[in-house]
Every structure is written in C-alpha cells, then in structure tokens.
Specification:
Strand order of the largest sheet: 1-7-8-6-5-2
Helix content: 40-55%
Low-confidence stretches: 1-6, 13-27
Structural class: alpha+beta
Shape: globular
Number of domains: 3
Distance between the termini: 29 Å
Length: 367
C-alpha cells in the first residue's frame, strides 16, 4: 500500500546550488537570497518570497537569475499560473494533475484557509466522472486513496496514493520502477529490504512545484519497502548511503519499533532520520547537511521536515554550544566531525529510550 499517510518523504536538491545560481561578484549586481526563497517555498509560502526577487532597475542581474525571477513570478505572482508547469509534463493524467496544481497554488495563496474539503471533493468528482469503477467512491481519504490508485494504475503508471506531505495533499506519479534487495543493519540486526528505484516522473508533488523543480522528495519508506527517485542519487556516493539508505532505513526500522509515531507532519520520524544522517556523515557531507538544517528549520511550521530540522539543530546546539540554536556554521566546523557524529547518535539513543517509555507513542518532540 503506497500511501502518503504511511510514508515519510526525503527532500533532495537536484542540481549543485553554486552552479545553478552563480552570481556576479560586481558591487552593482543583484544578489538573490536563494536560501531564503527556497526555505519559504518548502514551508508552503512561495508567495512570501516574491518581495525577495524584486529588482532595482539600476542594478545588474545575471541572465540565469533573471530567468528564475521571470519563472517564479509567472508561477506565483499573477491571478493564474502563467508558467509552463502543465505543458512540460503532458501525460494521461493531465486533468488530475491540473486539479492538484490548482489546489497547491490556491493553498499557497490562501494560507489562512483550510482547503482539504476542496481537494477531496474535486478529486472525488473527477474520479466518479472519468473512472467507471469509482462510482461507489465515498468522500473520505481511504476511499479516494483506493480509487485514485486504481485509476492511475489503469493508465499504466505508479503512485504513492492519496495523502499529505507537510500539510498538503500530494501527488507523485511515475512511469517505471525496478527493485533490488539491500541489507540494512539497525539495532545490531541485518535485515534484507526491497528498494524500488523509480524513474520517468510525471509529477514529484507540491515541493517540486513550489521550488520550480529545485527540491522534491528523493525517496521514502513504507512498512514493506523503500522507494528511491533514481535521478536523485549516485548510488556509489556517501549521499546515497547516508541520506537515503541511512535516513529511510531508520524510518523502515521505526515503523516496527514505534508503529503509531508521527507527530506533526511526521516530524518525530524525520527527527530520528535526520539524527541518523548526522551520526554517519563524514566531514564533507556533515557540515553541508547541518547548514541545510539550519537554513530550513522552523518549529512553527506545519511541515514535519522543517520542525525536525529545527529540533535537531536545537538539541545538538544545547549539547555542543550550550545555546538553543547555533546558526554560525564556522562554529560547527570548529567541532570535530566525529564529535558531532557521537552526539547525534547519543541524542538518537536517548530519544529511543524516551519513546519506549510511552505506550503507543504518537508524538514527542512537539506536543
């Protein structure tokens, strides 16, 4: 059952940040704050990033940055989406994807409104009209999940199902997948796990839409298997070994250890996955990952990734720096990587012990 209600998604940056957004070093040039722009977008607030791309006409701007500004404004500035999002991913699910695209965009533009009923009604109406088997569909998550998956499968595609990622109902659909077996070692036990490598995506969900394709789920875990977006990783890299196998393997193990654990947007599961990463990374990957968590941490978010990133940096900072949130990466770099690995592993161990004391624990890091 590939349903987003039972998975946690791992966000991934597809292209080197320094390459895709190279900036002129001249004093009279515009410098867009991409870190802040993407942080807002991943938190479901791309509209709040629009003021960050306003340009003083007297300043210079690199061609690539001007293109980004144009594309971002076309997607989020006007009454309707004027971007080529739908045109560049034509498929048999065009109409269904448009329903989700409109829902994502409406949700971004109207944060104060709860739009769950809207997307459920629109998807239900679409399925009843376009998929004869869905005539008995009822207006609830489980029923929509069953018939949406059957509809997409009938077209020859694969999907995660009907469920939320970070507060919004998501839609991930791909054309091809191949599976293999990896052996994971957790809690002193070696466990063979099936990993599906997915390719030829039609949509990678609302985070891909909000960030113009820069960030999207790179993989996820269910109780039965792991799923990996093939284009996201060099399978021989530390990034794959740690941020995918380590992180998602932690989820796979936790589904058995703590079957009810979720927290806001799966924040508790993400917290444990992120601590696992920081316990394993070598210096090169470690400090980059810490910087990403610092930039994207937000305790008040509805996105479990943002909440978890904040809590990881908070808890490590309390041990290593005796403060509540150390943002200065140079101070982190002054701490030996092995020390950070050890502290992350210790905090994860303590979290495990705390969770084991609570019967049927559902949430812990944010009550």
């Amino acid at each position: 059952m590939r349903t987003l209600k039972s998975v946690t998604l791992l966000l991934f940056t597809f292209i080197s940040f320094s390459k895709i957004h190279a900036q002129s070093t001249q004093n009279d040039s515009i410098k867009l704050d991409y870190t802040k722009i993407y942080s807002l977008a991943l938190d479901g607030n791309p509209v709040l990033a629009l003021p960050l791309i306003q340009i003083d006409p007297s300043k210079k701007i690199a061609a690539r940055d001007l293109q980004f500004k144009t594309n971002f404004e076309n997607r989020f500035k006007f009454k309707d989406d004027q971007s080529d999002f739908l045109e560049t991913r034509k498929s048999k699910i065009d109409q269904l994807l448009k329903i989700y695209r409109d829902y994502w965009r409406f949700s971004f533009l109207n944060k104060e409104k709860k739009n769950d009923t809207l997307i459920m009604k629109n998807v239900s109406d679409f399925l009843r009209k376009n998929f004869p088997s869905a005539k008995k569909l009822t207006l609830n998550e489980d029923s929509i999940n069953v018939y949406q998956k059957k509809y997409i499968a009938s077209l020859g595609y694969h999907t995660t199902g009907f469920g939320k990622t970070g507060g919004l109902y998501d839609l991930l659909v791909w054309k091809t997948e191949k599976d293999t077996i990896y052996k994971l070692n957790y809690d002193g036990k070696e466990t063979p796990v099936k990993v599906y490598f997915m390719d030829d995506f039609i949509t990678l969900g609302w985070s891909e839409y909000a960030t113009l394709g820069r960030y999207y789920p790179a993989g996820w875990a269910t109780k039965e298997a792991l799923f990996c977006v093939k284009k996201s990783y060099d399978l021989k890299s530390e990034n794959f070994r740690v941020s995918y196998i380590g992180h998602e393997g932690r989820h796979f193990a936790d589904y058995k250890l703590f079957p009810n654990l979720k927290g806001v947007g799966s924040a508790d599961l993400e917290y444990r996955g992120k601590l696992t990463e920081l316990s394993l990374y070598s210096p090169d990957g470690l400090y980059k990952r810490i910087q990403f968590f610092i930039n994207n941490g937000n305790y008040d978010s509805e996105n479990g990734h943002s909440i978890a990133a904040f809590c990881v940096i908070r808890d490590l900072s309390r041990v290593l720096f005796q403060n509540d949130y150390e943002k200065d990466l140079e101070k982190w770099k002054a701490i030996p990587s092995k020390k950070i690995n050890e502290v992350a592993a210790k905090i994860l161990e303590e979290n495990t012990k705390s969770l084991q004391k609570i019967p049927n624990v559902e949430k812990f890091i944010k009550q």
